[in-house]
Amino acid sequence: MIDRDLQGIGMTSRRTRERLAQRLRDQGVLNEDVLKVLVDTPRHIFIDEALSHRAYEDTALPIGFNQTISQPYIVARMTEQLLEAGPLAKVLEVGTGSGYQTAILAQLVDQVFSVERIRPLQEKARKRLQRLKLHNVMLRHTDGGMGWPDKAPFDGILVTAAPREVPKELLEQLAVGGRLVIPVGDEHQTLKRITRTSETEYETEVLESVRFVPLLGGTVR
Ligand code: SAM
Question: Where is the active site (predicted)?
């Protein structure tokens, strides 16, 4: 759990986050463990100061390099979809971005491996996660379409940028019984949850329409 001192100035932002959590509950987010972690986690520190007054709006916000911190609703939804069948030990996140989704996952699973293709974003995220004393996170600067083969298999994989098609490397790096939550598509994207049911079989559920930045190849220094 994140230190109370780091949760926000006084209790003001905690109360604001409680209101945000209630709004997400009203929109259908059911997992109370996820909502509690959302209340404990100061989103304002994951955003540049000029925009931090908008941190508790339920909206995506720019974080530089044409990228965004995801909307709280989508962070909560994807996390609850990943965790639906129970707690997970080892999770891969593709697209660290601001580090906010990483911080949420780090409080709900044993170990988070998170990859980001834009080095300066990854470095900022690292500092924020250290500030929150979330030490069960390992970050890597790489093209996440390839996953993180050395650390595979993963019990869960959560992707925060949309490929046109599900990368086969990510499917291969799922443990049997593991779940991949991923936005897929171009103009029209859908959020999918893919469960590896055996060595060779996968089951796909289509969850809802979403709008994500594209999953791009290569890295930026
Ligand atoms: N969870 C993040 C957050 O809330 O801040 C989401 C950030 S943004 C919606 C998606 C991120 O995915 C961006 O930071 C982008 O650079 C990253 N990304 C896009 N393609 C990638 C790839 N192939 N490998 C790793 N990261 C990638």
Answer: 70
**Assembly ipTM:** 0.99
Q: Which residues, 6+ apart, have CB-to-CB distance to 195 below 8 Å?
A: 177, 178, 179, 180, 202, 203, 205
Q: Which helix (H) or strand (E) holds 26?
A: helix 12-26
Residue ranges of domains in the chain, CATH in brackets = 4-210 (3.40.50.150)
Q: Is 144 helix (H, G, I), strand (E, B) or coil?
A: helix
Cα–Cα distance measured from residue 24 to residue 57, given in angstroms and rounded to the nearest whole number: 11
167-181: per-residue pLDDT in tens?
A: 999 999 999 999 999
SS3 176: strand
- Entry pTM: 0.96
Residue 137 C-alpha from the chain's centroid: 12
Considering the candidates 13, 52, 70, 114, report the single residue annotated as catalytic. Answer: 70
